[in-house]
Amino acid sequence: MNTQQIWRKNKRPIKPEDTVLLCFPFAGGGASAYYSWYDKLPEDIVLCPVQLPGREDRFKEPPYLSMDHLIEDLLPDIRQIPNNLILFGHSMGAKIAYEVEKRLEQEGKTSLHLIVSGNRPPHMPEPKPIHHLDDEAFRHALARFEGTPKEILENQDLFQFFLPMLRADFQMDEMYCEMEKTRLKCPILALGGEEDGEAVPEEIRLWEEYTGDTFSCRFFPGGHFFVWELEKEVLEIIRQNLLIQMEESYI
Question: Which residues form the Thioesterase domain (predicted)?
Answer without folding.
Answer: 21-240
